[in-house]
Amino acid sequence: MTAVLKNAVTFEAVGAKAAAPTVISFRDVSKSFTVKGVTKQASHSINVDIQQGQVVTIIGPSGCGKSTLLNMVAGLFAPTTGEVVYRGEPVSGINGRTGYMTQSDHLLPWRDVASNIATPLEIQGVPKAQRQARIAELMALVGLTGNEKAYPSQLSGGMRKRAALARLLAYDPETLLMDEPFAALDAQLRLRMQTELFKLSRQLKKTVLFVTHDLDEAVALGDRCLIFSGRPGTIVRDVPIPLGDDRNILQLRKDPRYHELCGDLWEFITPDHDA
Ligand SMILES: Nc1ncnc2c1ncn2[C@@H]1O[C@H](COP(=O)(O)OP(=O)(O)OP(=O)(O)O)[C@@H](O)[C@H]1O
Q1: Is the beta carbon of 66 within 6 A of some atom in ligand 1?
Q2: Are strands 98-101 and 175-179 parallel, antiparallel or unpaired?
Q3: 158 alpha carbon to ligand 1 midpoint, in Å?
Q4: pLDDT at position 74, please?
Q5: Ligand 1 in contact with 65 (CB < 6 A)?
Q6: Domain 3-97+175-269, what fold?
């Protein structure tokens, strides 16, 4: 392991967040699925605590149970053994303190941007005047002001992502569960969305679990990166990313610490690493 990682835990930003209250705990969690009488184990022996305000990136080979981990936090799947604890209570049923974002933006095609963002507020029964103020605030937050009346089909890929992000934030979830949300975007747009998500998550002090196949993205966005082994998956590394809250994602490629961390992650995931 390199010097950067050895010394990582001493960095102030990482240390302060590690001392924050625990929001999510996995305690000896395993998950299997039985389909047509055949049981497959997706993940096993998952033990991890995630502290308030941490952005935790998750990487690992396809099928190792990364999405399953998010689904268990959201309460969409129950663990087969062990428990997932959220703010001290076992998760049972839908966890309303979390919000989900995937590769697909799931915008409603028949509603304009403002109405899409309004949907969660309508469901929550927020009065119209408050709703309008909140929509304006969210549109500004994600840089979409002026596009209120546009329909999803009239938006670029990046604008759709921003609209989906604004709608997610309208629920004001404490924890954001993000499953490869930027995977379908071109490199430039992806970088912009990463920058925006990074700023927003820190500004709003959200706890974020972010699944990605992109190691650079895992380092650029995370305070910490969990590395999964192949299926049935478990967490084999928990790597601090001590780049701080004031990192400039657009300038990271010039930062030797960033390259060193990316190199370390590559080393950890190379197939013969544990051989
Ligand atoms: N609802 C389900 N029913 C049956 N099997 C499932 C279900 N959800 C996930 N699995 C299985 O559990 C395993 C882990 O799936 P999961 O989607 O969590 O992996 P992943 O690491 O997110 O994969 P990827 O990187 O390809 O998205 C896979 O073998 C998958 O087929």
Answers
A1: yes
A2: parallel
A3: 27
A4: 94
A5: yes
A6: Rossmann fold (3.40.50)
